[in-house]
Amino acid sequence: MKLLKSFIVAILLFLVNTSVSAQCTFRNTAFKSGEFLTYNLYYNWKFVWVKAGTASMSVVQTTHKGKPAYRGSLVTRGNKRVDDFFVLRDTLLCYTGTDMAPMYFRKGAREGKRYTVDEVFYNYAGGNCNVNLHYQNKHGEHRWKKHSYDDCVFDMMNIFLRARSFDPANWKKGHSVKFPICDGGGRTPAQLKYGGKVTVKADNGIKYRCLRLEYQEYEDEKWKKIVDFYITDDENHIPVRLDMFLKFGSAKAFLVNAKGTRNPITSIVK
């Protein structure tokens, strides 16, 4: 009898310890290791859109702290022409498990004369989603915070990789997927809002049938738009266009080339 009770207790503890970790996992149907996407970057300067530089996204399979993982990155690089007016240097990096559970996030952002760093370190010990948050402000000062949640939290890059495998077949315009987002400053309510289907012409001259997704964060008791994603209406969900709403203006990125995609690109409009 004691043995049976001990066995039941062990099973319950196992279920508790894996509950949050399990809900943080997801299937990946959209990308594979070796995917590399390149973009032209445009910046709005005094109501005129000017070529501002380039951006790239990549995903490779690797390990993180000894565990199988995907490393995802988004890098933006402004050119010298625009640097005279506004310096834009953003580098976003994340590690996500091959089961799509977030592992790490870093954003290094140089916008204008400001350079800041946000980091999120994840672990799932004790059946919770535990995060260690780091923020470096423009003066080089560092701030650390620790939090433990009984639900799963994400960062901008990890939720983007996860969202590429969402199935929007039955979504109607206005449908939203809500989730908590973390950066070096803490936890914020966020959502992806579906804006319907549109045709987008990329900078490679090809037109794609796309799904429009608005990434929004909840600030000052209202939803604030951060990025509009236009992703291919096929199983890859490749970002064809990104509209980024920055603290010092706005920028756009248009797809130039896509290599190493997982699935056939069936969204091309001929």
From TrEMBL:
Signal sequence region: 1-22
Any Pfam family hit: DUF3108
UniProtKB keywords: Signal
Record-given protein name: DUF3108 domain-containing protein
